[in-house]
Amino acid sequence: METRLLKYACEVYRKQSFTQAAKALNIAQPSLSQQIAKLERDLGVRLFFRDRNKVTPTPEGIRFFKRAEHILQLHEDLEREMREQSEGATGDLIIGTTVITGGHVLPPLLQSYQVQYPQVTVRLVEESTETITELTVKGHVDVSILSLPVEDSRLTTKTMLTEPLFLALPTTDEAWLPEGLTRQTPSVRLEELAGAPFILLKRGYGFRQTVLGLCAESGFQPRVAYETSSIQTALSFVKHGLGVTLVPEMVARNNIGPVYLSLASKPTRTLVFAYHKDRYLPNAARSFLDLYDRVTQESKRH
């Protein structure tokens, strides 16, 4: 069975359309249909149900594509590994991250990386935690920066850092703020804010779950006033008295405006590098992780 035919069939499976698959593969649709029909004859099974509007896999097809995609991944990994034996760290490095994290931890690291590995082209993918996790599992991202817990067992992790979380409050006195709370308060119990409006990241972002979990541990479910995909937007809303939110230290350190107070429970979040544990990790990604280790060790010495 030719790898080329596996690739053709998997593309039809992903697109659920011969027309769209043919465009993606840059071949003529009649030729693609003939190749898939030949594969089905050779296998002795029907892979697709075909109608005018949609192409769907048969039960045999679903089993076939699960194995076929794994074979194609192994083939791609093997080609890349063999090529890199002579070329070293070259080509593309695809890094996945959420907006809440990438802009704070990546710039100094990438600055050093590009100096040491100018032949590598770095591409960033900024999406929600949920999407980044899925892209990493599928091999569309080499290494991602996520916060614990990473729930997909197909990913392995390497710890980056652990940082405290802070409560962000408006600079104005709002009626929903607890009595006696001042900007000079050394720390606050999260349950004191049970009646306050909260501004959270949208569903699919891991940090949203972190905040909801901390509220649950404090005995209440927050009243969500606004949801956003941007931590900067959330902080702007806080600054204008529309609610409160929680932020990591790296965000608080780089955003002037709201008032930041420590929480009595001393909550933290841990960031990790995440990558597929059963796939080949490219040299460019290995070099990136090694550089982070060196930079971290040097900063500790100083």
Automatic annotation (TrEMBL):
GO molecular function, one term: DNA binding
InterPro entries: LysR_HTH_N (IPR000847), LysR_subst-bd (IPR005119), WH-like_DNA-bd_sf (IPR036388), WH_DNA-bd_sf (IPR036390)
Protein keywords: DNA-binding, Transcription, Transcription regulation
Pfam families with a match to the protein in the record: HTH_1, LysR_substrate
GO cellular component: protein-DNA complex
Domain HTH lysR-type: 1-58
Taxonomy, superkingdom: Bacteria
Family: Belongs to the LysR transcriptional regulatory family.
Protein name: LysR family transcriptional regulator
Species assigned in the record: Novibacillus thermophilus
